[in-house]
């Protein structure tokens, strides 16, 4: 049973999924291993993730491991209807996802995947886990554990732990080194700018790009924007991250100070109302606003609409212009949602190869480790992180050194002098 837009799109979805699979060699190797070992045999998995060709690779890997999978969309505007159709009609997953659904149907789909009574849950933003705890606590007793893919979701999970609200162990896949390095930094850096350029056809060279937040995503955005010739300004609330940005040569300002200078503004903080009406009031005519944080709360879209005297919808695909009383126009991309997944295709498959490899191996680990875990937020086991990096290097034909016996002895003993 699924709820998708058009089953006739399945063939087109299969072709796109197969294309993405070519660039995901690590996940392919894990899928072959899972098919032989069946580490997830008999388990039911409920997932709330972006319904994209890359996610299809993960779903197929979990199925190869013996799991039955029900998938809901973690963002209505990122859903690829052909991918949803292919997963439902060619690959045997239960899929509840349609592009452009409203909030009511979005949560109905989340409830539908929970109706399967999952053993494991995979989340991207914590909406699935939140709904499970608030609306379906009757199902909590059967859930053995879960994984969370995003910074925003991990923040929410830690809040749940502090309040004693989390009922089962959840692994913060977002925080593993391979995911942060490859997905957050290189994936977000490239795909966000890809979305902005597709939506606006803007030349970034010589423009001032203001990046709110200098975590792993913000660093990647700054590097890629600077590489394209942009002048980069960073806004931060964390003194250590702000210092890091300054020492890397970026100008660091409060958002109030950056607002008059920016040509393009990108939010990547995980918090709400990062760009507000007082900032809109200072922006240039034609300033472009884009969000790369998980939820559509980082830019105060309601405040922008209230300040505008006219909204020109669709001035370009995924671009709306808000005209202020003095005639200045501010261009909002993707309705304030994830610009890389709405106006572009999200991270390239080669990036998600590592993130979803982390997810798949962590699910297999949870399937046996859960009896020894108490409710809380856990890191991905170091051995999984190392294995994913090793497999990725091998797929890239990159060799590295190894320690000899004397070196291992030196590093493991405190008795060696200088």
From TrEMBL:
Report the principal subcellular site.
cytoplasm
One GO term of the biological process aspect: S-adenosylmethionine cycle
Q: Which UniProt keywords apply?
A: Cytoplasm, Hydrolase, NAD, One-carbon metabolism
Q: Which residues form the S-adenosyl-L-homocysteine hydrolase NAD binding domain?
A: 184-346
Per its UniProt record, the required cofactor names are: NAD(+)
Pfam families assigned: AdoHcyase, AdoHcyase_NAD
**UniProt GO cellular component terms:** cytosol
Binding of NAD(+) occurs at 150-152, 184, 213-220, 236, 271, 292-294, 340, 347
Q: How is the cofactor bound?
A: Binds 1 NAD(+) per subunit.
The family database entries (PROSITE patterns) matched by this protein are listed as: ADOHCYASE_2
Residues that bind substrate: 52, 124, 149, 179, 183
Q: Which family does it belong to?
A: Belongs to the adenosylhomocysteinase family.
Q: What's the name of the protein?
A: Adenosylhomocysteinase
């Amino acid at each position: 049973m699924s709820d998708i837009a058009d089953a006739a799109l399945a063939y087109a979805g299969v072709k796109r999924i197969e294309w993405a699979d070519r660039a995901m060699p690590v996940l392919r190797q894990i899928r072959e291993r899972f098919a032989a070992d069946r580490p997830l045999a008999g388990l039911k998995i409920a997932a709330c993730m972006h319904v994209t060709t890359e996610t299809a690779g993960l779903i197929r890997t979990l199925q190869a491991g013996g799991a039955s999978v029900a998938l809901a969309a973690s963002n209505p505007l990122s859903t690829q209807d052909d991918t949803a159709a292919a997963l439902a009609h060619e690959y045997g997953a239960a899929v509840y996802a349609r592009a452009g659904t409203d909030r009511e149907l979005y949560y109905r789909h989340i409830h539908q995947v929970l109706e399967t009574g999952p053993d494991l849950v995979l989340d991207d933003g914590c909406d699935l886990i939140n709904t499970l705890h608030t609306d379906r606590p009757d199902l909590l007793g059967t859930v053995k554990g879960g994984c969370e893919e995003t910074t925003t979701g991990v923040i929410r999970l830690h809040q749940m732990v502090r309040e004693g609200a989390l009922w089962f162990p959840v692994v913060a896949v977002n925080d593993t080194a391979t995911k942060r390095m490859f997905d957050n930094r290189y994936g977000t850096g490239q795909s966000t700018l890809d979305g902005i350029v597709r939506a606006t056809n803007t030349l970034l060279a010589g423009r001032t790009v203001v990046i709110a937040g200098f975590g792993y995503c913000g660093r990647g955005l700054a590097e890629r924007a600077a590489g394209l010739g942009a002048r980069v300004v960073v806004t931060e609330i964390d003194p250590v991250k702000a210092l890091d940005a300054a020492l890397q040569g970026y100008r660091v300002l409060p958002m109030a100070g950056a607002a008059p200078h920016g040509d393009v503004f990108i939010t990547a903080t995980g918090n709400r109302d990062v760009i507000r009406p007082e900032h809109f009031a200072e922006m240039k005519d034609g300033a472009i606003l884009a969000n790369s944080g998980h939820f559509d709360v980082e830019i105060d879209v309601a405040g922008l609409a209230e300040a505008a005297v006219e909204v020109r919808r669709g001035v370009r695909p995924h671009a709306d212009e808000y005209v202020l009383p003095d005639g200045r126009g501010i261009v909002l991309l993707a309705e304030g949602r994830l610009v890389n997944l709405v106006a572009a295709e999200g991270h390239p498959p080669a990036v998600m190869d590592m993130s979803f490899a982390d997810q798949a191996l962590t699910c297999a680990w949870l399937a046996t480790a859960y009896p020894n875990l108490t409710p809380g937020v856990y890191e991905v086991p170091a051995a999984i992180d190392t294995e994913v990096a090793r497999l990725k290097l091998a797929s890239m034909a990159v060799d590295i050194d190894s320690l000899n016996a004397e070196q291992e002895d030196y590093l493991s003993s405190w008795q060696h002098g200088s």
